[in-house]
Amino acid sequence: MPGIETIEFQGLPALHLSTADGASAVVTPYGGQVLSWAPTRGRERLYLSDRARFDGKSPVRGGVPVCFPQFSTLGKLPRHGFARTALWEITEQRSGGDYALATLQLADNPETRALWPHPFLLELTLAIEGGRLDLELEVENSGHAPFAFSAALHTYLRVAELEESRLEGLHGFEYRDALHGDAVRRESGEALIFEAGIDRVYHDVTRPLLLRESGRALGINADGFPDVVVWNPWEDGSAQIADMAPGDFRRMLCVEAAAAHQRIELAAGESWVGRQTLVTL
Questions:
Q1: Cβ(167)–Cβ(210) below 8 Å
Q2: InterPro entries from the xrefs (predicted)?
């Protein structure tokens, strides 16, 4: 039956969203993390590692982790911040025949303030409809002083074969290359092809992207997030990742909506919204 139901997913509490035409998604309050998305009459489009940890303490490898208030190691906090291992609250569930929507919130608490001494409210809204997944992250400064943050929707896309995939839309944009000493370069190729590890932050991306793989295409669009992160560890890198099986690097590609190049500054009482939309084509 279409709608929203409470389930247990690998031991974690979760919501299963579904529509009358067969689209579905799973999101857990642990980390406010989307773990699955399958469009109408389609296969799973998010990568989730078979070795992912679901212990309620560790980051879950795959899906769409929320990075906040720090992206990667660009600061003094734990890698990617604390939101992806915090327990969020489900605040809204809504569905009709052709759509389903859920909203989760995370507010500051003694644990977050011990790491980052700022009052805040995060809100993640997930909506599915047909061949479309919409994710919206809102950050509110609920305190009395300004703060700055970096953030990302760390989207792990599932691909049939990475070496036969190509990502279009980044031509001409400047990027920081983490695998080559953080060198800043400009993308000269019409499409990215994948023959080695990649870890790049593309700056101020203003066009939608298109991922072509396995005879299908996925449109990727961001709004509010100025940057796009493209990451795959390749064979050597994945060998250092305990919660990823050997060879799994060929089945995934992270294309992340991010605010990483420059931090977002929020005055007291202000809010910021970033969105990522995936559409099957």
A1: yes
A2: Aldose_1/G6P_1-epimerase (IPR008183), G6P_1-epimerase (IPR025532), Gal_mutarotase_sf_dom (IPR011013), GH-type_carb-bd (IPR014718)
CA distance readout (Å), 188 to 168, 192, 194, 215:
12, 10, 15, 25
Instruction: Report the greatest alpha carbon distance in the chain.
Output: 52
pLDDT in tens, 34-85: 999 999 988 999 999 999 999 999 999 999 999 999 999 988 999 999 999 9
CATH number (3.40.50.1400, 2.70.98.10, 3.40.630.30, 2.102.10.10) of 3-280 reads 2.70.98.10
Domain boundaries, the chain: 3-280
154 part of the active site: yes
pLDDT tens for residues 229-245?
Answer: 999 999 999 999 999 99
Catalytic residue among 123, 136, 187, 256: 256
Please tell me which residue in 154, 187, 213, 261 is annotated as part of the active site: 154
Amino acid making up residue 152? A
27 phi and psi, to 5 degrees? Answer: -135, 140
Q: What are phi and psi of 4, to 5 degrees?
A: -130, 130
Average pLDDT of every residue of the chain: 97
Confidence of residue 97 (pLDDT cuts 50, 70, 90): confident
Q: Tell how far CA 203 is from the center of its chain.
A: 17
Q: Name 121's bridge partners.
A: 107, 140
Residue that is written with structure tokens 């792990």 in the block? 156
